[in-house]
Amino acid sequence: ILSLCPEIKWHFIGHLQKQNVNKLMAVPNLFMLETVDSVKLADKVNSSWQRKGSPERLKVMVQINTSGEEIYLFSVSFLEGKHGLPPSETIAIVEHINAKCPNLEFVGLMTIGSFGHDLSQGPNPDFQ
């Protein structure tokens, strides 16, 4: 693809495990990571991007779990089944990225609303 589209800019969307950060940072033309969901992940991405030696800061979005939906795994409830931070932690991680991660550029928030919302009842409150 790179030979046909040398200007392509890749966005990574999805949960990123810390052990896969270095593999992702090696992707040519990586432009944005849309799912930073912890300070530890931000720190790991920041240091890996620095080692890559890119002259550009990597654009990142912080993933917030606005729906609070639960998932069940082996009959155990997980409140943050969808990945992402609780809304109450948003300011702290954004401040951390801006102050402690010089190789990252915070560009916004990413969230996924609840799947079961009935749009006939109006807009999904997860996005308001």
UniProtKB/TrEMBL annotation:
UniProt keywords, alphabetically: Pyridoxal phosphate
Asked if Ribosomal protein is a keyword of the record, the answer is no
Q: InterPro entries from the xrefs? A: Ala_racemase_N, PLP-binding_barrel, PyrdxlP_homeostasis
One cellular-component annotation, GO: cytosol
Q: Which GO terms describe its molecular function?
A: pyridoxal phosphate binding
Where does the record place the Alanine racemase N-terminal domain?
29-116
The UniProt family comment states: Belongs to the pyridoxal phosphate-binding protein YggS/PROSC family.
The identity of this protein, by name, is Pyridoxal phosphate binding protein
Give the gene that encodes this protein: PLPBP
